[in-house]
């Protein structure tokens, strides 16, 4: 007879890639789902294949001052899809995360779950998802596995055919979570967040981790822009915001109860409409004299960096600022240029005046776009360096359901539609000539 409250296992799968590092990367959506389940008295377990702090680890864990650090890694064979379309690849292909035998031992020691929920992030990490689900099926062959997340949403057909999951869901999981749990376990979730009010969503269950090196924070969902290369508007069609007070209470929760010092904003729109959202939050943090650090790996919109914004960000404890510059060719209309030259220079001046040091400021520059002239990239790198900022090359990943996808398919030097792994930005799929590939290698050296 089934227990009143089911046991649900939430899984963060392995990453298969040529290179990976923990740049404040946590499965925030999965932790949010886990929090909703716990709110409904569901017994939740968490299996983190990417656990840098696995209890079976004997070597010291390397943790930078800001919470980042390297993953454990194991070299694995190149997936057949890559081998067949690329031929010989000199780069080493790697499983990043905890050792496979550790994860298998974790599963064997675990009580049998009634349902397994697996998330997915980058589309080109599809083989890591498949390997994780294969192991779950080996240990718990009769337990249903449901896959969601970014890869599942953007590459739904591929995920249904090759992931090994019993069911694939697309888009945000909250609207379908209650139906999923009732279908597979017979249990009813009575307390569900209001999709129109993000403040009703419980704080993500980050405490399920063995250690909380940093806390990801999302003050909003969605983005007011629709950049050609980005899938944000497909994944989250409308912009929704949490109240500044709700976000502040979450910061207090992790800092006061779990001694978390570093926070990474995952927002696409952190500084949009700042008088109503960001400024009240930052002023509250400053007033409370909270000794915490903030990082913006998703970049902030340059146009919104006023003198007041820069001053509040500095006083509140922002330590890593990434600007969404994309290119310093301000005359170009090839892509969605969101900032003018004078706006960029003014924003940088505000940040420097407020007290930010050179090594705290970086600007993302797109590289490897279909048909891109690398002269433009080099000029952008030089301009950014000339201003005393760190140029950060953001290598283009072709993503289905984006306006640029058709252009990427047309310009790619191999068939990127054959397998998501072929869109890996380490392969520079839309850079057609060896000369340009060599030049990108030189640009990497200039940036360093």
UniProtKB/TrEMBL annotation:
Q: Which residues form the Radical SAM core domain?
A: 209-427
Task: Write down the SUPFAM superfamilies for this protein, in alphabetical order.
Answer: Cobalamin (vitamin B12)-binding domain, Radical SAM enzymes
Entry cofactors = [4Fe-4S] cluster
Domain B12-binding, chain residue ranges per copy: 12-191
CC per GO annotation: cytosol
Annotated keywords:
Iron, Iron-sulfur, Metal-binding, S-adenosyl-L-methionine
The record's section on InterPro entries has: BchE-like (IPR051198), Cobalamin-bd (IPR006158), Cobalamin-bd_sf (IPR036724), Elp3/MiaA/NifB-like_rSAM (IPR006638), Methyltransferase_Class_B (IPR034466), rSAM (IPR007197), rSAM_horseshoe (IPR023404), rSAM_sf (IPR058240)
Keyword Translocase (UniProt): no
Q: Which domain of life is it from?
A: Bacteria
The UniProt entry, under Pfam families, shows: B12-binding, Radical_SAM
Q: Name one GO molecular function term.
A: cobalamin binding
For this protein, the record's CDD domains field holds:
Radical_SAM
Q: What is the name of the protein in this document?
A: Fe-S oxidoreductase
Q: Which organism is it from?
A: Desulfobacter postgatei 2ac9
């Amino acid at each position: 007879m089934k227990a009143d409250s089911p046991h649900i296992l939430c899984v963060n799968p392995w990453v298969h890639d040529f290179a990976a590092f923990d740049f404040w990367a946590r499965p925030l959506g999965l932790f949010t789902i886990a929090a909703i389940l716990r709110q409904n008295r569901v017994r939740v377990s968490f299996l983190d294949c990417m656990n840098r702090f696995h209890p079976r680890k004997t070597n010291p864990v390397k943790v930078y001052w800001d919470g980042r650090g390297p993953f454990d890694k194991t070299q694995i064979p190149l997936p057949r899809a890559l081998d067949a379309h690329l031929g010989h690849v000199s780069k080493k292909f790697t499983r990043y995360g905890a050792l496979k035998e550790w994860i298998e031992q974790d599963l064997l020691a675990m009580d049998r779950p009634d349902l397994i929920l697996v998330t997915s992030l980058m589309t080109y990490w599809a083989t890591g998802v498949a390997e994780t689900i294969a192991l779950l099926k080996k240990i718990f062959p009769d337990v249903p596995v449901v896959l969601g997340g970014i890869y599942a949403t953007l590459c739904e057909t591929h995920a249904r055919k090759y992931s090994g999951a019993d069911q694939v869901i697309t888009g945000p999981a909250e609207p379908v979570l209650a139906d999923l749990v009732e279908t597979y376990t017979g249990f009813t979730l009575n307390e569900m967040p209001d999709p129109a009010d993000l403040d009703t969503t419980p704080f993500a269950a980050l405490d399920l981790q063995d250690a909380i090196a940093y806390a990801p924070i999302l003050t909003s969902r969605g983005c007011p822009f629709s950049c050609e290369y980005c899938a944000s508007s497909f994944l989250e069609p409308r912009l929704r915001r949490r109240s500044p007070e709700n976000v502040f209470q979450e910061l207090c929760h992790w800092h006061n109860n779990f001694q978390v010092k570093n926070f990474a904003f995952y927002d696409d729109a952190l500084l949009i409409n700042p008088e109503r959202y960001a400024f009240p939050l930052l002023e509250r943090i400053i007033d409370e004299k909270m000794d915490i650090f903030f990082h913006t790996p998703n970049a902030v919109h340059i146009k919104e960096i006023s003198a007041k914004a820069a001053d509040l960000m500095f006083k509140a404890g922002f330590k890593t600022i990434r600007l969404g510059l994309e290119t310093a060719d301000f005359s170009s209309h090839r892509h969605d240029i969101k900032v003018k030259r004078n706006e960029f220079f003014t924003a940088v001046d505000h940040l420097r005046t407020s007290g930010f040091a050179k090594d705290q400021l970086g600007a993302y520059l797109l590289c490897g776009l279909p048909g891109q002239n690398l002269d433009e990239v080099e000029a952008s790198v030089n301009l950014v360096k000339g201003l005393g900022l760190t140029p950060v090359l953001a290598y283009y990943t072709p993503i289905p359901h984006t306006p640029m996808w058709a252009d990427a398919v047309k310009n790619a030097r191999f068939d990127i539609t054959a397998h998501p792994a072929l869109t890996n930005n380490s392969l520079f799929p839309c850079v057609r000539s060896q000369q340009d590939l060599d030049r990108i290698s030189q640009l990497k050296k200039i940036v360093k």
